[in-house]
Amino acid sequence: MLKRERPKERFGYDPQKVLRKLEELGREILKEVRQGKNPYFDIPTRGLNNVYFDEVKRVIRMGDKLSRRYFLNVAHARKFMQTLLIAAYVKRLVSEGKHASLREAYYANKHTIPGTKENTFEDQSESDPIIEDLERMLGVLREEMHLTADRRGYVYGDITIRDGEDEFNTSKLGMGGWAVPGTVEHIQFVDINVDYALVVETAAMADRLIEEKFPKKERALIIATQGQASRGVRRLIHRLHYEEGLPIIVFTDGDPYGWYIYSTIKQGSINLAYLSEKLATPEAKFVGMTMDDIKKYGLENVTEKLKGIPPNKKGGPTGDYKRIIEEMNYPWFKNKEWQRQLKLALEWGVRIEQQALANKSLEFVAKKYLPEKIANEELLP
Amino acid sequence: MAKAKELFKEFKIQSVSEFFRRNAAMLGYTGKIRSLTTVVHEAVTNSLDACEEAGILPYVRVEIEELGREHYKIIVEDNGPGIPEKFITHVFGKMLAGTKAHRNIQSRGQQGIGISGAVMFAQITSGKATRVITSTGGDEIIEAWVKIDVEKNEGKIVKKLKHPNPTGWRGTRIELEVKNVKYVRSKQGVFWYLKLTAIANPHAHIELIEPDGKLIVFPRSSEEIPKPPVEMKPHPKGVMTDDIYRMAKKTRKNTVKRFLISEFSRISDKKIDELIKYIAAIRLINREEDKRIKDQLFERLAKGEVDLILKSYGRRAKKVLKEVQKLMEKPPEKLSWHEAEEIVEAFKYMKFLAPPTHGLRPIGEENIVKGLTGILKPEFVTAVTRSPKVYRGGIPFQVEVGLAYGGELESTFNLLRYANRVPLLFDAGACVTTMAARSIDWKRYKVEDLDRAPLTLLINVISVHVPYTSTGKQSIANEDEIYEEIRLAIMEAARRLQTYLSGKHRRLYQVKRKKTLQKYVPEIARALSILTGEPEEKIKEYFLRLIEKKFENVEETLEQAVEVEADAEA
């Protein structure tokens, strides 16, 4: 039986650390310029060519390639200025204990540069990457800088959370549970009465499980990601696992997108590779949907065809086929079980949704499918 | 017979003047705008030529007065040497008379019909005599009204007054009244013509008073009077039978040999011996009946095997050589057309030194630069004067090009064409200068769109014999050698423009960079102040000092680069 484990990490958010890092950044720049040197920032490079898979920690991590952003370079100067603007803004936010959304951060810092027709920021697409740059440079989460994204995903189960002045149990907020905010850095877990967390891809499935009282019966915490898991949700999963010792089980559709959601929760993503250590949960396991489920539960009639051209056909592989082949090449899917699943998907050319289980009966998933699989630990690594 | 008599009843001998009266177009009197320009051109040209020959810095003033519809009075006044009384009728009244006719000399006017043509034009359009006021700087000023007796080709003074000259005024002022003309400020008009003239003659001060009373001054930008052109003897490769025939009739030398040596360049006693051999060889070869053999022999002659050919004819050759020698000793006026033909033919096979070029008088790079700068006020100007070359085997010519860019120039390409410093205003399309200028790949020289570039190109073709495409003398024929020289000159000037432009772009780019960096400083200072607690003003100072330091060095190296470029051009 799955049981809550011993915590591995301690709650680590410290606003003073963020402020110190920001001030240090400012002082370095000032020192350079005072000495008549061309000040610069070193920013870890984005993108595929600066990430690697850490076999020991089993997460996607960022390489050590840096790009240097100089003030005295006309091509860099604008971004140099923008970086400092955001850094100063963050300092104010953190020291005042306030949070701002990415959009608010954009508007707060957007103004016309005196004596020109140029704006400090023309578009949010200019400020968002600067915030990411700061995260990389400082090794500090956006959430720790009090910059939040829109909330997405929700939590339902017998856990008590303290968020600012409020304290609440997420199974007592109605069927909708507790919406995960953009940043979960500041929340604290007061009491946890569940054995594991079940991360569910679709809201429809999460709702179904809540209605069937699955959380209560199985002592599970339901976390609905609503598609690709937001940073808030990923961070919450990470914290629940490492700070509270909750085992993590992921329940997605049986298709390349679902498997990718799992991959991101487990190993992190290329985009946010620099945050993997704070966002990824390599110990997470996968409950379904798998290709084996189709046979085992007789779901052949409710599969869907994969989209795109199969690899053995002219012009292929494209669409779902192409993505499956890409996923087969992920180092963390290079194990017997996953290779078999993915190969089956390719062979059969089918995908299966979580909701397909409703074909059996509405209660099937909550009463039979999940409890059986989890109890028997029929989980994929 | 009776019929012929009837016919010849109406037959009259037409005088030269009469001919030109009927064919005014040949002298440039076509169209209302062009006719006016031509009148001004003839008068101004005379003034400039006269001043140059007399070593005077020209001061020319043109005044156009509107008297009625398409009816103007044109006044041209100069500070030239003046005209002695007895020459007034010659200068203004007689066609084909002048100081330069029939001399192999580079000049603005050539046939000596210019100003008399203008007098004629005034006379046939308005019926009025031309008023001439002139003094050579002596005690008296002469005021004369000149008309042309068309039938006799003679000038006559219809009225004459003499005035005292207490201030010692010297110069010439002529007033012509013309009808059927129009003053328009177009590219074929007087304004444009004078502007072009001023550019090519920076030593001249030129003024124009337009019909509405507006005064336009093209000031002098050089104090250097161009040296008057030197007469050049024709080169044997450049002459035609008619030239030899005609010149032989007029020469003072008493033998053909002496005539050839003294009146052509590059002909010496030794060359005459050679010429004799060639003429003899040509005569002998021409007697051959077999065309194939004939062609073969001419081929060998072209290779210079004249001695071998003569040897192969043995005694016959000796006889012919003697005959030709005799021809060389006979009086030139007795030279027959056929003999002149033989000489020209022999010249074709012979080798001569390239013609002398001392008679060519380019404007000169320095003066072109002065002219373009003074009148157009560009930001960049350069000039290229190529060394003389020959076309058609023996006619020396020289090309010069001036290039002005930016500054007060409008953003449009202008080609200023000149032949012997005379602006060409018409038939631009047919002119070799236009073709050459258009054939250049301007993009290679950083001129992206020629027709929208603030660029003015001056091209002056100098020769004792400019190959005009027609009697209008407004466009230069496309001779390969001239075309190539123009292209080479333009490309050299364009290369300098390219250097300048890339330097300029570099400089502008630096200024822009500096400004870009500076504008961010206040923002950066405020942010850094929040991050570090340091006062904003101080941070600003640090950053501004950093920027200054960076561009200080850059500016120095740039100035050095520009200086090096200037040195290279000097």
The percentage helix of chain B is 40-55%
- Which strand order does the major sheet of chain B show? 5-4-3-6-2-1-7-8
Gyration radius of chain B, in Å:
31 Å
| Distance between the ends of chain B | 78 Å
Query: How many strand segments of chain B?
Result: 14
Number of strands of chain A: 17
Query: What is the residue-averaged pLDDT of chain B?
Result: 85
CATH class of the largest domain in chain A: Alpha Beta
- Name the assembly state: heterodimer
How much beta of chain B, percentage-wise? 15-25%
The general outline of chain A is: globular
Most residues in contact, chain pair and counts: A-B, 30 and 23 residues
Low-confidence stretches of chain B: 96-102, 560-570
Number of domains of chain B: 3
List keywords for this structure.
heterodimer; A: 381 residues; Arc Repressor Mutant, subunit A; Dna Topoisomerase Vi A Subunit, Chain: A, domain 2; six-stranded mixed sheet; three-stranded antiparallel sheet; globular; B: 570 residues; alpha+beta; Heat Shock Protein 90; Ribosomal Protein S5, domain 2; eight-stranded mixed sheet; 17 helices; disordered C terminus
Structure commentary:
The complex is a heterodimer of chains A (381) and B (570). With 381 residues, chain A is of the alpha/beta class. Chain A folds into 2 domains: 15-148, Orthogonal Bundle (Arc Repressor Mutant, subunit A), CATH 1.10.10.10; 154-375, Dna Topoisomerase Vi A Subunit, Chain: A, domain 2 (3-Layer(aba) Sandwich), CATH 3.40.1360.10. Chain A is 39% helix and 17% strand. Chain A is built from 13 helices and 17 strands. Chain A has a 6-stranded mixed β-sheet, sandwiched between helices. In chain A, a hairpin with a 4-residue loop joins strand 2 and strand 3. The longest helix of chain A is centred in the N-terminal third of the chain and has 23 residues, at 74-96. Chain A starts with 14 loop residues before the first helix and ends in a 6-residue tail after the last helix. The model of chain A has no long low-confidence stretch (mean pLDDT 90). By secondary structure, chain B is α+β, with helices and mostly antiparallel strands. Chain B folds into 3 domains: 16-218, Heat Shock Protein 90 (2-Layer Sandwich), CATH 3.30.565.10; 241-349, no CATH class; 363-570, Ribosomal Protein S5, domain 2 (2-Layer Sandwich), CATH 3.30.230.10. In chain B, helix 9 packs across helix 11 and helix 16 (480-532) packs antiparallel against helix 17 (536-569). Classes of the chains: A alpha/beta (381), B alpha+beta (570). At the A-B interface, helix 1 and helix 2 of A face helix 16 and helix 17 of B.
